[in-house]
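Service request form, structural biology core

Requester: graduate student, group of Dr. S.
Request type: structure prediction, single chain
Budget code: on file
Notes: please return the result as structure tokens.

Sequence provided:
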Amino acid sequence: MVARRKVAVVGVALSDCGRVDEATPYALHAQAARRALADAGLDRSLVDGFASAGLGTLAPVEVAEYLGLRPTWVDSTSVGGSTWEVMAAHAADAVAAGHARAVLLVYGSTARADLRAGRRTGTLSFGTRGPMQFEVPYGHTLIAKYAMAARRHMIEYGTTIEQLAEVAVQARANAGLNPEAMFRTPITVDEVLSGPMIADPFTKLHCCVRSDGGAAVLLVAEEYVRDCRTSPVWVLGSGESVSHAAMSEWPDFTVSPAAVSGRLAFERAGVRPAEIEVAEIYDAFTYMTLVTLEDLGFCGKGEGGAFVEKGRLRVEGGELPVNTDGGGLSAQHPGMRGLFLLVEAVRQLRGECGQRQVRRADGTPPRLAVASGTGGWFCSSGTVVLGVG
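Core staff response, request fulfilled:
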């Protein structure tokens, strides 16, 4: 029996992101994968584990073939935006148990370019089978489901639309420090509130951007760390949880599955939320950030509105910098964005983020970070705690 090994993230990368009109999704996968391997300084021959979702009929078989890989461990878990945190947890378990030595997680999407070229429409349908058949006739969209949840929180706890708008304002402030973010011009609460209504109470700036882009993360067993050109970022703990498919089966619109995945991740990592120095949180909509902060334990239930005020989420001067690259609200959002959260968390812990780098009081980079992804309409959650040293 193989002793359980420590697992480190040693390579992370993004493909070209934002407005990428000429590339295919496969090309973005390949570009991100090559860059992550180069970041780690490792040859692809070491990779015997592969995880991907969202592309092809037989994902990840088709993508692995495109990349010239023949893995002996694979994962194609697909639970929306939280897919990548869940996959990272599975990969870490596999490496720790000796089932793989190096696992590559890769994602790529041309969601924006496909829309512009007429290859898809702006409305994403999840079909009408199964539990969906009871809700689809009423016409509420993915965005409307999040809006309903946000409105419930406002009614239940007095959360204001201005507080939700603050999430977008602070994400944009962080994006202003990221030269690769799609939108960097500062915005105000009034500008968020005065935008076109998308789904009450969400105006346009409460919703994520639509972009193209890809990302890749490479995890390896501890014995390979010495061969890498980068400093290791250790996977300390993880958790995953699913909640519901039908909105009618969601017990409480103000509680996301991050309440479970976060608790498990922190317990397994042996750290408390108060020790976390950087948080990368899935933010397809402003409410996602607010309620996930509550459910991860950074503030009490119903206190998210007050917590996000006064610049707490900003890189510059914030008590808990959140979505330091600008997040899905301003940086990029090509679809299942959870892998981007892991990339940014690792870069922050390695001190590689330039102007948007979070620093401790002594000027050093942070030592603990959390990445928490959400899938569907709060249907699933995956949380990963990462650390250095």
